[in-house]
Structure formats: C-alpha cells, structure tokens
Amino acid sequence: MPRSNVDLDSLIAQLTLEELAGLLGGSDVWHTMPVERLGIPMIRVTDGPAGARGTSFTGLASVNTPCGTALAATFDPALVKRVGHLLGLETRAKGARVLLAPTINLHRTPVGGRNFECMSEDPYLTARIAVGYVQGLQAEGVAACAKHFVGNDTEFERMTIDSQISESAMRELYLVPFEAVVREGGVKSIMTAYNRINGPHAADSTELITDILRNEWGFDGIVMSDWFGLHSTVEGIRSGLDLEMPGPAIHRGAKLVAAVESGALTRADLEAPARRMLRFLDDMGAWEDGQPSPETTRDEPADRVLLREAATASMTLLKNTNAALPLKGDLGRIAVIGPNADPGQIMGGGSAFVNAVHWSSPLRALRNALGETISFAKGCRTHRTLPAPARDVLGPITLDYWADGLTSYRNGVAPLFTEPGRGLKLMWMSPPSADIPLQTIGCVTRTTITPDETGDWTIGCSGVGDSRILLDGQEIINDANSPTGGSFFGMGKAEHKVTRHLEARRTYELVVEYERKGEVVLAGFTIGLLPPVTADLLLEAVDLAAHSDTSIIIVGTNDDWESEGYDRTVMDLPGAQDNLISEVAAVSKSTIVVINAGSPVTMPWLHQVDAVLYTWFPGQEFGDALADVLTGSVEPGGRLPVTIPRRLEDTPAGEHHPGRNGIAQYREGRLVGYRWYDTVGREPLFEFGHGLGYSTTSIISAHTDDSTGSVQCVVANTGSRPTRETVQVYAAVLTEERVAADQPTQKLVGFVRTPEIAPGQSVGVAIPVDSRAFERWDETVHGWVDLAGDRQLRVGTSSRTIAHTLAV
C-alpha cells in the first residue's frame, strides 16, 4: 500500500523521456536514480545474505549471521524469521531499504562456489526457510531481494552459460522457492540470474519475468538485474525487467532514449517499469525518509545472543560413537588441532562478505570454556592465496589518493586526501570520494611489517589494475604487464608472490603503489603475507595428540575455496587436512572432528574417528557456539539440508557439471540430491535430513488429519537428557511404472522442530503437509496434475530413517 500522498500518475506524466529512462537504471553501485527536479528520491541497496554490508567492502563493521546452508540446517523457519528481523535492523543501520538476499538457488552439485549462500538441495526446505527469512526482514520496513532468478547454480562461465532445464524440473524444483517467497512471503523485489535460461539471458526472459512471475504468481514488486547482468536494451524492457544495476547504466539511459526515438520502443514501454519503480519507492517510504541516511554500526548484546543460538541450532552432529560428545567429567589433556581452529571461518567469500563486528575464535572460546590446559597445533596450512597479514605484525596503515592514477604522485603532487586503512585488502565499487573517479583512481598505501620470527616470509599481491610493492624502498613486485584472470570475481590478476628473508622484531616499511585506468566496474588489491615454515606442522600435531586424552580437530574450507566467482573442482578438504585427521586419529585416544565448511566434503578418515560435527559457516559467534555444543550446554540442533556423498563422482550432476560448449545440461532432471540417491539406490555417506542429538527419541505414533492437511505425531524422549527432534514427512507414490525416468521415489513435503522434550516424556506435534505433495508438473498440459498410484506419507527423522508409513 502507498505510504505517501504522492500522485504517481502525475509524476509519470511530468517526467521527460531522459528522466523516465534514467529511473530504470542505477545512479551508482548502490543507489537508484533520483529526479531532483520532481522531488523523486533515491534509495540505497546493500549486499546480503549473511549481513548488511553497506556501501563499502572495507568500511563499517556489520553483524554477520550464519550462512544460508546453516540457516537451512536448523529446519526452523521461526528461528530464521528472528534472524531476518535482525537483518532488517542491520539494513536500516546502513541507510538502506533493500537487502540483496536471500539466495534461494538450489545445491545442484556439492561443489557450487556459492552453495554456502544458498540453503538446500531441496526446494520445499528452501522455500520454508526463505519465507521465514523474507517475512522477518520485511517486517522491519525493508525489502528483501530474492535471488538469483533462476538456475544460477554454478559459477562456471556464469555470465554466459545456458542452463538448459526441463519444464518439469523448473516447476518442481528451481522455481518452487521463488514462488513461495512471492505468494507467501510477499517479497518486494527479485534479482535475475547472470546465466541464460534455455536460450535467453534470465534478464531478457519474458516467460520468466512477465508470464510466470507477474501474471501467474501475481508479483507486484520490482525486478532488478544482477550487477552487470543485463545484456540488452530493448529485450530487457520487453521482458519486464525494471531496474538495471549498477549505475551509471550501460544498456539503458541514453540507449533507451535512442530506442524510443528510433521506434524500437515507445514511451509507454518505459512508463510501465517506471511506475513500478515509483510505487516501490513509495512502498519503501522513500518520500517520507528523504535521502539514504548515514551508515552506522549496530552491535547489541541481544544480537549476539540470537546469533549464538542460530549457530548452535545449525550445527549438525553426524557421528558420535563411544560417547565422545558431549565432553564431560575429568577431561584430562585436550589437544585442539587444525587450520580452522583459530580464528575459524565464519563466512564465505564474494559479495556475501561483511566486516564482522565480532569474530569468536573456536580456540579462544574452548580455552575460556575448558581452561588454559588446552594445547594447540595448527597441523597444516590450507591457503589458496596467501593469508592476510596478522594484525600484530602490521603497523598503522595510511591511504593516500590521487585522481589521475599515480601520475601526480610521481610528479611530487600532494594527495587529494588521506585516510587511515583497516587492512591490506581494498576494493572499491564506487569512488572513495567525489573528486576521484573510479576509472582513474590512484592509491598509495603505507604501513610497516614487524615479523615475530626470523625466516623466509612470502609476500603476495593480486588486484584489478597495476600494483607495485616496495619493501624498505626496494621494489619486490610489479605486476603492470601481467594478464587479467584469477582474482576479484575473475576481473583481477593472478597472485604474484616473492620470498624475502626477514628478521624477527625488525621493522620494515611496506608501500603499495596502486593505480587503475580505463573503464572498470571495480578496483582494488590484496596483500598476503605468509610466515616462514620453521617446524613440521604435521609432526607437531601428531605428537600433541599422542600425549593428550582427547583431540578436537577443526578443519574445513575458507573464503579462498568457497566464494563467488568460481566453483570448487573437488570435494576433498583443501591441503593436507585429510592426512592430518588420519595421522592424528591413529594416535589419539578420542578423536572429534569439527568440519567448518559451507558445502559437503569427503571423509576418507570417517571410520577412524569417534565423532563428526558439521558447523557450516556459522557466523560471527562461531567459537562460543561451538564451545556450547561440544561441552553439552546446548544440543547440536542441525539436520543435513544437503546429502553428503561419498565422492564427487557419486552425485546426480557429476557427469554433466559444470557444462560444455557454453551449455549446462540439467540431464538429471528432477533427481537432485536425495531424490536421486533414493531413486537409483546409491548409498550416500550421510543422507539428507540426518543429524544426531545428545539424547535419543522415538516417533511412537503418527496419523493423518485430513481436516487440517497435516500429519499428527507423538514424539518421545527415550534418553537421559532434554532434547528436541526434527520430524520429517516424505511423500511417495507407488506405481508399477514411473511416469518418467526422472520421477523421484519420494520428496520432502513437511517437517517440524519439536519443543524441548524432557527425559521419559513425549510431546504431540502437527506437521503441515505441502498442498502439492501428490502432484507433478505435466509438460503436455503445462500445469499441475495428480500423481497416479498408491500414495504414502513416510514419517521419520531423515530421508532414510522412516518410523511410520501412512497410506493416503
């Protein structure tokens, strides 16, 4: 409903053709285009989905929530709705009214680069979690922008790949979460995908945007392109795309004016999306609030409590033998081992990155919880590119800026302005000031390095543009003639590395001379610093484990390995982590493995260890939440939102991913994730929905309730401590012959997280069942039809642990 008394029709009539065209593109990276003559304000958008970053990648700190996969692992839409409320407050704190989130593409393959942003391999689970996220977020007066519509399931050739998806798979899988956030969540904006969909780019698809999204589902918000994801002028208007981002527009603006003047489009063609834009501004209170407010940082104690709760609710206990967890009694000597123990990985890489207000380290949290008797060994290194320099090694950082690259700097001209730096990873998607165009930015960064040990240190640099690195006045890196490719979403240069012998406690001056000239969409550079290897890290870890009573090995990936811009090529843990676990387990009395990764990894050492806990990327409260779970003060609440396969070759899309000759063929059709494993009879390592608590439960009864469309269950706690259970309902149709080769044998159609159940007690729960539980999409009639055959609802605690089968 409109919030002001603005007459939108009158405004449309008063707009010149140029102003009309301008409204349909951004003014810069994060703002829509204002029309000051008519008092039409701009509105700010900001990246999500694991926080609200604001307009700078290296600017003000922001709250960092668990990643999308972690949120789905909670199987708790109500909890996610509370996280959504927090994100709404965060978005407003950054002066924005649109959060570019949630990411609701599916985990088609376990190695997708942005899987951690997404939620699940299952469309129903994704839909339920996404609706909670959107409702919570939008209750705070900001718009969610659900992305990426649709089939953006790989980072391989992401701007050009053609995702060829059957109509039935599109309707039964990939469109389901988007339909839910429109029909149930009331989402106010949608972002199109980069890729093509069965031919046209997603931003040019009239079938998707106009026919399905608007006409069939009744969506009345705005549709925007992903950043630089629009590739047309006329087609994008005809498809129904409202807003090209970022600005200044590439395919709109003057090109739209020319298209109208040439007769390719009419003024009325532009007025329809412009009216939607104005209605959206009105709905977001843009006229009431005026220009975007200044950006601020929130860090409330209640926020940390909520995020700690969400992190523990997502942590998924996969294996627990010999009562390894929770830790209890006289613990003796504890070895904490692994590259992810300190500081741990709280988020993935790319546009989901935020500068977190807090970073709870697992090692520090465990020492706080269990005492200083804990000993630590890193075990191995896992960096893909050189890690950022440690804070205690770097001195104060200053940044000097020029507007003509470094020409004036070389001629001795004073900088236009100077500011303090927060680190040696800088990225600009908008100019650092109005006086410095991004296309001709020059920046000189000065700091010092004071090594804490003597030896051969490795220094590296990658960036978009040209970088020259000087150490104590001596040039050590100059990448001016290096080709593009390998960093910064594929737009930057590969990392250049050099090794220099440095002495402990001696201070060295480090200067980075950086410039970028030419048309660019971003600028920036990263400096990495690797200390010398002075010991055998594996030998240290094994020796520590042999002299300890319990080994807690914290391994995983990081934002080097799971990031926007590229997919993983293997499921194995990076570096020598698999060997580290195996060697430690061989000498350890009790071995607990904590996997800190956003997507599945292989576990060749699984038979050697006592317990495995998956933490995903759990957000800023990682360490404290992990300590809560390991010590048993809180139960691990998570259940697998994805199947964990034994190896990459055992996955549904393994033969077809990532694509060939510009085409990604979705030949597995509707058999994604557990649907494929269950249908073809392939054994996963851990099935979808699996997860253990610290007690035991039993679903002692189940029956259908036709009056409410639900399954009624009684769940008992058969163990010795309070617990909760996640009850899941799967629909199956038994037929002599499947309708199609990709007809799944069963699919998730309902779930509920029970309240806490005391030992020896039971609780009744009602599980709403999806209204399309026994329907399929028929490509001959282009609509939903009933599935023929004997219908069953299977009630259990995972896709393969079924307690009751109910005839329907």
Strand order, main sheet: write it out: 8-25-24-23-9-10
Helix content: 10-25%
The global form is globular
Regions with little confidence, pLDDT below 50 for 5+ residues: none
Report the portion of residues in β strands.
15-25%
Number of helices: 19
- Spatial separation of the terminal alpha carbons: 42 Å
Rounded mean pLDDT score? 94
Radius of gyration: 27 Å
Quaternary structure type: single chain
- Helical/strand content category: alpha/beta
Q: What's the total count of β strands?
A: 35
* Biggest pleated-sheet summary: 6 strands, mixed
Can you give keywords for this protein?
single chain, 19 helices, 808 residues, alpha/beta, 35 strands
